[in-house]
Known about the structure:
With 473 residues, chain A is an alpha+beta fold. Helix content of chain A is 38%, strand content 19%. Chain A has three domains: 35 residues, no CATH class; 199 residues, CATH 3.90.1700.10; 212 residues, CATH 3.90.1710.10.
Amino acid sequence: MDVNNIFEQDLKIVNLGNAGFAAELKDLGVEVTHLDWEPPSRGHVELIDALEALSYRDDIDEANKEAIERYSSSAPVLIDVGRAIDVIPGLSRDTYLHSGPPVAWENMAGPMKGAVIGALMYEGRADNPDEAEALAKSGEIEFSPCHEHNAVGPMAGLISPSMPVFILENKKYGNYAYCTFNEGLGKVLRFGAYSEEVLERLKWIENVLAPGLKRAIALTDGIDMRSIIAQALHMGDEVHNRNKAATSLFIRIIVPYLVKADIPNDELVEIVEFISSNDHFFLNLSMPTCKAMLDAANGVKGSTVVTTMSRNGTEFGIRVSGLGDQWFTGPAEMVKGLYFPGYSEDDANPDIGDSAITETAGIGCFAMAAALPIVQFVGGTPQDALQYTQQMYEVTITDNNMYSIPFFDFRGTPTGIDVRKVIEKNILPRINTGIAHREAGIGQIGAGLVSPPWECFAKAIVALAKEYGNKTD
Amino acid sequence: MFAKTIVRTNAYYDSITLMSLTSQVSEMAGVQDIMVGMGTDLNKESLARLDLLTEEANASSPNDLLIGVCVIDEETLDAVLEETDSILAAKKGPSKSNVSEDEQPRSIEKACQLSPGYNMAVISVPGVYAAREARQALRQGMHVFLFSDNVSVEDEILLKKTASAEDRLMMGPDCGTSIINGVPLGFANRVRRGSIGIVGASGTGIQQVSTLIDCLGEGISQAIGTGGRDLSDKVGGLTTLTALELLTADDSTKIIVLISKPPAQAVVGKIIAKAKLINKPVVICFLGNKTPLESVSNNITICNNLEEAAIQAVGLASGSNNITLPDEDACGFIKTANSQLKDSQRYVRALFGGGTLCEESMMVFRNLGISYFSNVPSVKTEALADVEESKENTFLDMGEDHFTRGRPHPMLEPSLRVPRLLKEAADPEVAVILFDVILGHGSHSDPAGVMAAAVKQAKEAAAKDGRQLSFVASLVGTQADPQNFDQQKRILEQEGVFVCVSNYRAANLTANLLKK
């Protein structure tokens, strides 16, 4: 279009601001679209400045492409089971990992405190909850985020030194990811329960389940995690809150090896029964799968792609590829959703757990359009589920190369949250999540949807602009 | 009394919607005060003034909606909130619960993705956000009509240079009026199409000249607004020069009219040099230009007021040198008015919505040697000490920031001028009240009605006080305008307002009324 022929064209107008202008133009028969405009960055001028400094930048787009490429070409494979202290980097006898960004004992939410108490008793560091609490308070115990140790954990996400963990290797980039075993629903450590039955189950996991799975996995060539997830998405899972299909697929793969692994028969029965009776068993595999891939995408200079979204029940924290290990936090929000009978929002703990790693990797809520039955669990209608996923394309960089949505003509799930897009469009990522009771040990009381607090992204864009705002050619 | 402040987070509405909402709701029975606005510092101040600024409101962001109300009872409060919600719901359009292709795009980029081929962006978002949106539009290859003001001059220069490099037309910021291919953009009148092209750094200036041209039987090929600052030293006429080139190359344009408030002297030279090279007649009206321009070239006609510019242009277009506007017979009006004046009644108070019309009227007074004060003085000695208090002859541009901060422009909401009009009418020293009524797209649907009601009230109050006042209005518009020129004229005349077809005439008539 040349400026000199503007007078020979029919005007096709986009109008933003005063809707009256558009209405009058429409009345005149002029082709006009009135935007549903709102100021970017929720109207904060300093954030717009940061956004502007980072927008239309080939170098940043390139960096993001690189981060996405590293994510997409990752090959996470389940290779082994090991003891946390032996395999997870940076762990000592006194190191206890938890979900979310860093948090001190005194600021921990109820479920997380309960899980710490339970873990200390499980490790034999305390005989009773009072002793455990005193030890936790003493400063002797070092609390550290799972995320800072290539690990992830659902809900409280507690990993103590002798807990067994899945070991996933990213065959493409050589990095590892770790996660504990899913204990099932009800009274479980990840919701802060520490009764005898909880500790006994943890011991059983350590002594029976873990060694059994270790032997079975050793017979495989490694289990490709992405293909299980890709299939499960077409079977109604989004592998965050619904893992029924993925767990079933995992059983199909692992049982022949379990049978061949010379496991005493009574233990074999227990193992198979345990996995088969827990719809969420695969969550603790989908999470480290995402983690292994996103860790590979982290640390790309100039990239504005989010590589971590995580909560500790007190704060929500995100990390961004181009800013490495820096956390950007804000207060964790309350989850909006459906409650189990007898519970309400008054009973709920704010958002908690590392499981938002799934959304960060383009699944979970981002794949809800593939998992329509999930709305019976988190609330809303199938139409809502379609819309939630649809909206996430607005804040992401790419369509996933592995995970697709049949209803959208097998379009890849929205993947790679761009801090710039979140800020520009005022659209926060959405997360499907379970709701924990705010008191330790009661467990899950519902499920629903939640978003990170805006501050996380506001702080991140400012930090990004500070680091990369001036283009260096 | 019930006072309540409500904060709705992340519920953005544009300021024009909210201001018109505020004025609608404030008219409801039982409402004492209401402020509806986004959580900007300015709006927080307004709430604080009404004693409605809660802690929550104070912590709100510019994307949060603030509703502060003071009402007589709780029932009224409910009614107000219900009304507010229904107005806002209507503005937001149908619910967005469906994944549908009809969904309104939220950004320029998205609009272009959904449907390519947009070639013009009309932008009237708040100034702090406007430059960014204009940049987006230019990036998408669009021409831009940027109505918003409060855009920094640095951004303006950058936008105009970008546009120029990309071969795009950047109209504005602070561009009130354009007519492109017969399509009115911003505040513009329905004028017939014809052979006269206008370039103007003044919205109301373009409206005055284009409506007068229409009234004289000619038409407009294109009217290109440049934004009020285009002919400043810093901006250097970037858009004006582009527009002149465009009209030079446009075969439909036979005559070019160039209008501006006083431009920077350095820029005048640049523009004249450019105009000289144009192979078409160019009519130039630099209102209130301090150093009178010589007729520098025989294709250039210099005019001193907007009416003259229209007449000259139509004369050149039609080849006739006998062009005149229909004459109003003011003799009777002047006579009656003068006979009724008391000795104390010596001054005019002029309340303008159009900044250029205010400027032109002051120029008339200046040239006649009548002193005056103003909120937009051309020299310091003309400045009002307090713009809320008129002094002797006073000219107010009520579209200026002081009056429009947080409130709609008087062209959108003429009632903004009503309290001031009543106040002036109550001043025993006032003889005449002069105002403009601007019709066309973008403007209020019945500005004459609003002003006529105020005139009636003012006259009655003055009569009780034993005084008679004269009212003079300049009416800018055409028969084809949505408000209809004749009908608006009648409404004003019914209240005894003397209506002039041009602003220049209205100012001269007013000056006459002051002479004893």
